[in-house]
Amino acid sequence: MNSWLKWLPPSWAHGLAPVGLGIYTSFKKFPTREWRSFEFAGVRFPNPLGIPGGMDKNGTSLETWKSLGAGFIEVGTVTPYAQKGNPGTVIDRDWHEQLLWNKLGFPSHGSDDVFFNLKSQKSELKIPLFVNIGKNRTRPNEEAEVDYIYLADRFSEVADALVVNVSSPNTLGLRDLQKNLNSWLKKVIDASRGKPVLVKLSPDLSQEDLFSCLDQCEEAGCAGFILTNTTSQRPGGSKFPVEGGLSGKILTETSRNILKKSLLHLGPRKNHLLVVSVGGILTPEEALARLDLGADLVQTYSGLVFYGPQFFEDTYQREAQNRNIEQRVES
Fold this sequence. Notes:
The protein has about 325 residues and is α/β, with parallel strands linked by helices.
């Protein structure tokens, strides 16, 4: 099904993908498989594969993602007030190198519209729903907590967990918020009415800054982390602009290493945290590898683009096959 995306202009493919997938799943639905199921903070995950923020910014296609077999869905990034994306070309790809570039910049219908989209669908969803929240670009960083506190309070009614996005490279100065999380994150957590709050971090942090962010978030009471967002790095000879974020194959090794380092740094503290790995997960084998490294959940965007809509079902089948192989070896 993803082959037709290859021949469309990138902006068209991005806009039409949810429509095309909706049509696809009206004819072919994948079940929500029960495998590696677990519960965290009262939220039950039937399986550990999910849709990341950025795919459904306004919560208009929840049933489509569920019909692909996802075990959970993340919507957003949502901003308090509606805002358009960045001007000019904001999305591109390299099919051969399996790279996706975007400079979207939190285009959002605004919190009112997204809230009612989610509220109208939540009772029928039956799988966990994360809401990714971010500040409006007109909100200065020194006042950013106002937007995050408002959104945490607003979406605590419909979200099973909230994701604080301070790591997108597409909103000017947003990543600077990673430097002083302990000055305002606890206020956001307090506003979430007991719902788990995760923080999404950048893959471009130094090891020292990564560990500092992990410690600040954990001390503030956050429930876990999403590792990682898109990167500002570029491969040699890249055709993509220096602005914006790159995802896909370039992130596979980086995101995997950040997961390893983060788990090692957290040590026993990991036992009460939820760790989500995302970035460069292009194959079912890579999804299973992240879980085997210690991630509780994994998300893929590029995998659905370059591998196809059967990604979640095929990952389950690989898992089932691996278990059968292990059982034969043990016997």
